[in-house]
UniProtKB/TrEMBL annotation:
This is MFS transporter. Its main location: membrane. Keywords: Membrane, Transmembrane, Transmembrane helix, Transport. It comes from Phenylobacterium glaciei. It is found in: Membrane.
Length: 457
């Protein structure tokens, strides 16, 4: 009996359309694989986002402006990350996805280490580009892999579990980065952030399985990409209005989240320096280390709960009405900016930090519903490519433009006609960008109208 035709254990399944579904992996292995992929994604976001807590020390050391911080944390990374995600996802439709994820992990971890060696803005941007090149191979490939591992009725929960890597990586990046930067400098923080990924690469290569090997020959043929696959997927998605609505709705959410990330610590350091120093001193920490720990623990924990809850709530509610996949992120996007603005306007750093937990609880609810919907709107052979198109839009708009927009707006408000100064400039840049969440609400709500008719797998 050949490997292609060997029976697989009970778990996620696939069918060639002529008979019963063929199981691909066992339930126990699926749980293990999800934990490993979560660890990979956590390292992905740790290495991507650690630069945000290091932004102020880097700014002071290298003499940068806020727009340069936005360029370094966003656009320089995002252009290569998003553009390369498309051909890599195309490769993932037929090539071994485990190899792609493992190789990508090694590349981005190595370039994270190199970020700590930069002595100029140009060198740091170059290293960040390298991180973006490596990370381009992770998320679309992992989404495709998870969609094969998990049955349809558990897909939102599985992808939401994987997406916990976003807040968990942010938590570790902020907490670890801030503490290490205070103790040993920002360069050492980059070094210690990159090394674990280089070591974890072996775990990925040695223990993750490519489930396509468990398919029957007929099923494999049915799920294989055809000639001109990217063009075919794009053409198919043109007839799926819901895909584009959720893509741009999620892009707006990412625009806000990524835009705020590099400047939240800067906001507290510029507007509440004395109070932050006083709170930090009680724990024997410096201001940057304290903020990294506080923002990481509060925002990260809230984000982890939010990511998991978004998928669980959507899967539960969708059993009665599939439109819940859009209702959950729409309502959360409407409420969040009002709470966020209140927190940023409070005169107390202590209460502002605590109130920011609530937007954190609402901010990641969209992960599971959006990512699972994108996988369900296309047939299996188009999943990696559709995920890459979705992430191209989310990350180019969100990661590429969000930090740059907030940085430019902060500079304009600080030094332009209003002359608000750097402290008030960053405050109102954060508040103004937060209310773009209302746009996301509208897009998700419009998508809600026809999502039932457009889901196919």
């Amino acid at each position: 009996m050949t490997e292609a035709s060997a029976p697989a254990p009970i778990g996620a399944s696939i069918s060639d359309g002529t008979g019963p579904a063929v199981p691909l992996v066992s339930d126990a292995y699926r749980r293990y694989a999800l934990v490993i992929l979560l660890a990979v994604y956590t390292l992905n976001f740790l290495d991507r986002q650690i630069v945000t807590i290091l932004a102020e020390p880097i700014k002071n050391d290298l003499g940068l402006a806020d727009w340069q911080l936005g360029m370094m944390t966003g656009l320089a990374f995002a252009i290569f990350y998003t553009v390369l995600g498309l051909p890599i996802a195309r490769l993932a439709e037929s090539f071994n996805r485990v190899w792609i994820i493992g190789g990508s992990l090694a590349v981005w971890s190595g370039f994270t280490v190199l970020c700590g060696q930069a002595t100029s803005f140009a060198q740091l941007v170059g290293a960040r580009i390298g991180v973006g090149i490596g990370e381009a191979g992770c998320t679309p490939t992992a989404h495709s892999l998870i969609a094969d591992y998990a049955p349809k009725e558990k897909r939102a929960s599985a992808l939401a579990f994987f997406s916990i890597g976003t807040p968990l990586g942010g938590l570790l990046g902020l907490a670890m980065g801030g503490l290490i930067a205070d103790a040993y400098g920002w360069r050492t923080a980059f070094l210690l952030a990159g090394v674990p990924g280089l070591l974890f690469t072996a775990v990925v290569f040695l223990t993750l399985r490519e489930p396509r090997k468990a398919m029957s020959a007929a099923a494999a043929a049915a799920h294989a990409p055809g000639k001109g696959h990217f063009a075919a997927t794009l053409k198919y998605l043109r007839g799926k209005p819901v895909f584009w609505l959720i893509a741009f709705g999620a892009a707006v959410k990412a625009f806000i989240g990524y835009g705020h990330a590099p400047f939240t610590a800067s906001f507290f350091l510029r507007n509440h320096a004395a109070e932050v120093a006083q709170m930090a001193d009680k724990f024997g920490l410096g201001s940057v280390g304290f903020l990294g720990l506080a923002l990481g623990l509060m925002g990260g924990t809230a984000g982890i709960i939010s990511s998991w809850a978004g998928g669980a709530i959507a899967d539960w509610a969708a059993k009665r009405d599939i439109r819940a996949y859009m209702s959950v992120p729409a309502v959360a996007s409407l409420i969040s900016p009002f709470i966020y603005a209140t927190a940023i306007l409070l005169p107390s750093a202590f209460w502002a930090l605590w109130l920011l937990i609530l937007p954190g609880l609402l901010g990641s609810l969209w992960y599971g519903p959006v990512y699972s919907s994108a996988q369900s709107l296309v047939p299996p052979q188009m999943r990696a490519t559709s995920a890459s198109i979705l992430l191209f839009i989310i990350n180019l708009v969100g990661l590429g433009l969000g930090p740059l927009f907030v940085g430019i707006l902060s500079d304009v408000l600080a030094n332009g006609p209003l002359q608000l100064g750097s402290a008030e400039g960053v405050r109102w840049a954060l508040i103004g960008s937060a209310f773009l969440g209302v746009v996301a609400t509208g897009l998700f709500w419009i998508a809600r109208r026809t999502i039932r008719e457009e889901i196919v797998s």
